[in-house]
Amino acid sequence: YKVAGEPCIRFFVLIFIYNKNHNTISFLFILLYRITNDDGRVKDLLLDSFVLEEGVTYEMHFQTSDYFKTIGVKSFFPYVKIVFTIEDPSSHYHIPLLLSPYGYTTYRGS
Predict the structure, then answer these.
(1) Taking the complete model, does pTM exceed 0.85, yes or no?
(2) Could you read off the pLDDT of 44-60 as tens digits, one per residue?
(3) 3-class DSSP state for residue 70?
(4) Long-range contacts, 85-90 (Cβ 8 Å, 24+)
(5) CB under 8 Å to 7, separation ≥6 — which residues?
């Protein structure tokens, strides 16, 4: 295995929204799904009509095993979940996933 340092192209991403009461994980709804472009990004992630809500928790679910299978690489994590709560709906949220077959990291970018 060699680290490529390249974008993950055609990477499947699900976005979930938690119930506003935050009382149980069973109240999780699929909001949308997208596939990354040739730059490894999802342009226009949300529809123009959709507004992020303050205090609401969202989850980005990345299908990592599917991606690694398509490029012929074994991996440890079948998927990666990034769970976050919106503090200011008017702010820009950039949440990159840095990924290798046996590890990952993320952060809130600008």
Answers:
(1) no
(2) 777 777 778 888 888 88
(3) helix
(4) 85/55, 85/56, 85/57, 85/58, 86/52, 86/53, 86/54, 86/55, 86/56, 86/58, 87/54, 87/55, 88/54, 89/51, 89/52, 89/53, 89/54
(5) 36, 38, 39, 40, 41
